[in-house]
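Most newcomers find our protein records easier to grasp once they have seen one. Read left to right, the backbone structure tokens trace the chain's path through space. Nothing more is needed to start thinking about how sequence determines fold. An example says more than a description, so a record of this kind follows:
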Amino acid sequence: MSDLRRRRTGTARTRSLSVIGGVAVGAVVGSLLLWHAQVGEMLGLAADKSPVVSSVSAPAVGPPPATSTPMPSDPPTRPSSSPSRNPSTTPTRSTPAQTTRSVPREESIDGLSPKLRSRLKRAMAAARADGITIKITSARRSAAKQQRLLNEAIRKYGSYKLATRWVLPPKYSAHVQGRAVDIGPAAAMTWLNQNGWRYGVCRRYDNEPWHFEALTSPGTKCPPREPHAVAAPD
């Protein structure tokens, strides 16, 4: 009986000690948790007041980098829907077209007087029918060309008087006036000298078998020839 009581008493003590130990352990753990919470709050407040700066290098904080996205261009302008008006035109005066007058070639009969040109055409056609070709070597000349020929003749013959037997000054020359023509070759000179009167074309000078002028009416004999040209006195 006493043994059973002692065992129950020991068991009760053991349970009491276990309960007391558990309560003590719980109290200690609770104290530790409370202390840890208080420490955590203190550390948290300190962290809020002075943030810890990391010693690891970090990229500097600055404005965002500029992007390479191109800016949109202005939208194309739309044509106005209003009807276009014809621009007002200011009437301008029409200027007459400037025509360049062509100078006939010296080897052409186009620059001759109408009378000599028409007569010479008929004579040339008749000569061609006889197998003779009349070629124009010098028809109408410019005053400058006539003066140049006179200067050359003066150098050649040694005097103005002798030179004018062959070449007259421009103001006296029938060539400059379109009233004289020089022809070739020799067969044509002979033919026109013999038949030119039929067409009103005559040889004028003895010393120039190539020189012809309209000196008579067609079908009329030519006047007597002159020995050479003579410059009219000033």
